[in-house]
């Protein structure tokens, strides 16, 4: 499973990128707002730092404007994936941009039918939001499973980019289901290294080591 980092914070991306943990980056208008940065500047900086796809989202609601914004964002770098919302205008924009050879990430997906439409419109990525379904007491992970089944049934190339990942459990379950990509905040990716038994075991080793009076260096 590829790891995308869901943030526009350049330092956090750089830290994980140095560890080889970053296969791509996703941003959205809320993450740009949180970063306090200019969308064109920060997207350019991230795209230069990371080899994989960097999603930058359009904010227009109508097709004509979406296309203009999408083309402008796509020009920032070769590894830009233009993110469009799962609306009819977004699907139409997806079709046009993907026919032009631009990667497109269709976002705000909350149903299997929406994912089916995005695949037919030529999306490179579909972004189903797990956490926001969980917020409504629905099973976000079930949606990932349903989309996996549908895409495999018909051999769609669209990659499932599991989004709105809020916990380490979401990450491991997505990997078990076979999501192609997960995008998670840097904190969640870092938490994946934690285990209480690792901490406990290390503590015991360090106590015993101190008793030996030895040093390695
Ligand atoms: O990639 C989409 C993601 O940013 C949404 O996450 O936690 O705001 O639902 P969240």
Q: Secondary-structure map with pairings?
A:
Elements: E1 2-6, H1 10-18, E2 24-26, H2 29-35, H3 39-49, E3 54-57, H4 63-74, E4 80-85, H5 88-99, E5 103-109, H6 112-120, E6 125-128, H7 130-134, H8 140-154, E7 159-162, H9 168-177, E8 181-184, H10 186-191, H11 196-212
Parallel strand pairs: 1-2, 1-8, 2-3, 3-4, 4-5, 5-6, 6-7, 7-8
Helix pairs in contact: 1-3, 4-5, 6-8, 8-9
The structure holds SN-glycerol-3-phosphate (G3P).
What does this structure look like?
The structure is a single chain. The protein has eleven helices and eight strands. Helix 6 (about 110-120) packs parallel to helix 8. An eight-stranded parallel β-barrel has the order 1-2-3-4-5-6-7-8, surrounded by six helices. It has helices at about 10-20, 30-35, 40-50, 65-75, 90-100, 110-120, 130-135, 140-155, 170-175, 185-190, 195-210; strands at about 1-5, 25, 55, 80-85, 105-110, 125-130, 160, 180-185. The chain starts with a strand and ends in a 5-residue tail after the last helix. By secondary structure, the chain is α/β, with parallel strands linked by helices. SN-glycerol-3-phosphate binds near residues 6, 26, 28, 163 and 183.
Largest sheet: 8 strands, parallel, barrel
Count of separate DSSP helical elements: 11
What structural class is derived from the secondary structure elements? alpha/beta
Strand order of the largest sheet: 1-2-3-4-5-6-7-8
**What proportion of the residues is helical, as a percent range?**
40-55%
Ranges with pLDDT <50 over ≥5 residues? Answer: none
Radius of gyration: 20 Å
* Gap between N and C termini: 38 Å
Ligands bound to this protein structure: SN-glycerol-3-phosphate
Number of strands: 8
Give average pLDDT, whole number. Answer: 98
Q: What sort of overall outline do the alpha carbons produce when their principal axes are compared? A: globular
The portion of residues forming beta strands comes to: 15-25%
H/E order of the elements? EHEHHEHEHEHEHHEHEHH
């Amino acid at each position: 499973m590829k790891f995308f980092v869901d943030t526009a914070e350049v330092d956090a991306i750089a830290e994980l990128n140095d560890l080889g943990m970053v296969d791509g980056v996703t941003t959205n208008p809320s993450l740009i707002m949180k970063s306090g940065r200019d969308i064109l500047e920060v997207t350019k900086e991230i795209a230069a730092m990371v080899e994989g796809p960097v999603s930058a989202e359009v904010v227009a609601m109508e097709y004509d404007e979406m296309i203009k914004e999408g083309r402008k964002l796509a020009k920032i770098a070769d590894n830009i994936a233009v993110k469009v919302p799962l609306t009819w205008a977004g699907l139409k924009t997806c079709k046009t941009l993907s026919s032009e050879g631009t990667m497109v990430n269709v976002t705000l997906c909350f149903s299997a039918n929406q994912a089916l439409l995005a695949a037919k419109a030529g999306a490179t990525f579909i972004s189903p939001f797990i956490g926001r379904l969980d917020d409504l007491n629905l099973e976000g992970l079930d949606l990932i499973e349903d989309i996996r089944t549908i895409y495999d049934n018909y051999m769609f190339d669209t990659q499932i980019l599991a989004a709105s990942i809020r916990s380490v459990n979401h990450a491991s379950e997505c990997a078990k289901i076979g999501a192609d990509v997960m995008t998670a905040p840097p904190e969640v990716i870092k938490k994946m290294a934690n285990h209480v038994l690792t901490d406990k075991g290390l503590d015991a080793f360090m106590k015993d080591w101190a008793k030996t009076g030895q040093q390695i260096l």
